[in-house]
Specification:
This protein is mainly alpha-helical. It folds into three domains: about 210 residues, Clc chloride channel (Orthogonal Bundle); about 220 residues, Clc chloride channel; about 100 residues, Alpha-Beta Plaits. Helices cover about 60% and strands about 5% of the residues. The chain has 18 helices and six strands. Strands 4-5-3-6 form a four-stranded antiparallel β-sheet, with helices on one face. The protein has a two-stranded antiparallel sheet with strand order 1-2. A hairpin with a 2-residue loop joins strand 1 and strand 2. Helix 9 packs antiparallel against helix 13 and helix 11 packs parallel to helix 13. The protein is globular. GO terms for molecular function: voltage-gated chloride channel activity. Keywords: Chloride, Ion transport, Membrane, Transmembrane, Transmembrane helix, Transport. This is ClC family H(+)/Cl(-) exchange transporter.
Length: about 550
């Protein structure tokens, strides 16, 4: 019993309290200043575009500048290819063991390249890069002395969650990100690591904000513009859920199609050309201002646009402008994502949901809905779009509460999220981040041949796996643990009926891998030394090339 407790302290308490907390401090500090710089660059960029709209001599200067920025982005991506595309799907791939990256190079490049994207005005957000930056910083912390390789992905998960929490000012959503989105399962250690990193990261971020005179505020400070739904209004979220499901499915399919075209028909087009086209197209949109439409509303991540739309009941935006913005952002976000430009799609995706909500609110008011509910419909639509597109309904529910500081319409948010989620499930449209991750994995493993290994392993005393259930362990990607033979011939299960591993237990592991040496090393990090898998003792290992 004493040895088991010592192992628990070593492999659970220490990584969670020490490395999780330190990861939170590091991520909370660096992501805070990353986001601060991103906001400043966005403000400066907006002023430049607004000035150019009124001073035509600036137009060629703007186009020349975005061309230079696209070239700079290209060379940074060439130096760190891991920064191409959305930060969240790439971070999820790293956390699941599907993708690899160089942590320091990725951390530097994702920050700088994201700033380039924001300054150019691309319709991409800072939340995805914050998650990838947090993941990379977590990987750096896991290299510190006395750390163990079996903790790496847990520490990186803490960094990713802290990055999300600091970027969105949503700590509980940050914790849920690991459970519902990144790993799609609950385990005690993932939960504890995420909570430790998020709490310390959020606290440090708030301390930096207080030191610099920034008052805490909701991500979308619109609660005063959100009216209270009554049961007689239940038809609104029901109908809205249907609208959202249709557009969310269409959006996912369009993003997938654009990515497929880039990877097949446009495969020979150089990356610098792809970036140049997206940068120039963005600049062209940003220079347009006519008939109540301003191109700057179609640019950037969309956080300011969401707030503006939620206030539309008192600050009128013409319905046709809302539709124009919806169409433009629908296409430009997909093109920017497909091109591989560095930046996040989380808030941009929410802006599409908010625009759809604003358009729907115009219709609902005409159908008899109280106009005071306009802003509420915008926020509910945003949340439902998130839940439907990413298939993370619980995260969507919690996020809308944390991002608006409003609990009053949670039932109606839940109705819209449920309807949109179920309809997308029925038509079998795949989740957005899963397909983007699959695309990244295909590119990483292009030209490689995978193997299917059948390995006979033994859990060593004091190993990370000792006294843990099979499902509580982050195994190498595509791993299946088969029969477990207990060392004392007594099969053991935990309180939930899951298979439990103890010292001396032998097991059969089947794994599909592109890197046999790396996979064996990861298994040894978890189970302890496995001499039978090396050299002349590898008789118990079989590999089948596929």
């Amino acid at each position: 019993m004493k040895q088991k407790y010592k192992n628990y302290l070593k492999n659970v308490v220490v990584p969670v309290l020490v490395y999780g907390a330190f990861t939170g401090v590091v991520v909370g500090t660096l992501v805070y200043f990353f986001k601060l710089a991103a906001e400043w660059l966005t403000e400066v960029s907006t002023e430049i575009y607004l000035y150019a709209q009124q001073n035509l001599w600036m137009i060629p200067v703007v186009f020349a500048a975005v061309c230079v920025l696209s070239v700079a982005a290209y060379f940074l991506q060439k130096w760190a290819p891991e920064t191409k595309g959305g930060g969240i799907p790439r971070a999820e791939g790293v956390l699941r063991g599907i993708l690899t990256f160089r942590w320091l190079r990725t951390a530097i490049a994702v920050a700088v390249n994201s700033w380039i994207s924001y300054f150019a005005g691309l319709p991409l957000g800072s939340e995805g890069p914050s998650v990838l930056l947090g993941t990379a910083l977590g990987a750096g912390v896991s290299k510190l002395p006395l750390s163990h390789d079996s903790w790496n992905r847990y520490i990186m998960a803490g960094g990713a969650c802290a990055g999300f929490a600091v970027a969105t000012l949503s700590p509980v959503t940050g914790i849920l990100f690991a459970l519902e989105e990144a790993f799609k399962r609950f385990t005690p250690m993932i939960f504890l690591m995420a909570m430790s990193a998020v709490l310390f990261g959020t606290t440090v971020s708030n301390l930096w904000g207080a030191a610099l005179g920034h008052q805490p505020a909701a991500l979308f400070n619109v609660s005063e513009f959100m009216g209270q739904f009554q049961m007689s209004d239940i038809w609104v979220p029901l109908l809205l859920g249907v609208f959202v499901a249709v557009v969310a499915c269409a959006y996912n399919l369009f993003v997938f199609s654009v990515g497929h075209v880039y990877d097949t028909k446009l495969k020979k087009v150089p990356q610098w050309v792809r970036l140049l086209v997206v940068f120039v197209l963005t600049a062209a949109i940003g220079l347009v201002a006519a008939g109540g439409f301003n191109g700057t509303d179609a640019m950037y991540g969309g956080g300011a646009l969401i707030t503006k739309l939620a206030k539309n009941g008192v600050q009128s935006i013409a319905w046709y402008v809302i539709l124009i913005l919806l169409v433009i952002r629908f296409f430009t976000i997909a093109f920017a994502t497909g091109s591989g430009a560095t930046g996040g799609v989380f808030i941009p995706m929410l802006s599409i949901g908010a625009l759809l909500g604003a358009a729907s609110a115009e219709l609902f008011v005409a159908m008899g809905m109280d106009a005071s509910l306009y802003g509420t419909v915008v926020i509910i639509s945003m949340s439902a779009f998130m839940g439907a597109s990413t298939r993370a309904p619980l995260t969507a529910l919690v996020f809308v509460v944390e991002s608006t500081w409003s609990f009053s319409n949670l039932l109606y948010v839940g109705v819209a999220v449920f309807v949109s989620y179920m309809l997308c499930e029925v038509v079998k449209v795949e989740p957005l981040y899963d397909v983007l991750l699959e695309r990244m994995a295909e590119k990483q493993n292009e030209g490689k041949q995978h193997k299917i290994l059948r390995l006979n392993c033994v859990a060593a005393a004091g190993s990370f796996a000792e006294s843990k259930s099979v499902r509580d362990i982050l195994w190498p990607a595509n791993t299946k643990v088969g029969e477990i033979v207990a060392a004392d011939s007594v099969k053991r299960m935990d309180d939930d009926g899951e298979k439990k591993i103890n010292a001396g237990d032998s097991m059969t592991i089947v794994v599909q891998t592109y890197d046999e040496r790396r996979t064996v090393a990861e298994l040894e990090d978890i189970l302890g030394s496995q001499p039978q898998l090396h050299g002349e003792n590898a008789n118990d290992k079989s590999a089948q090339k596929q």
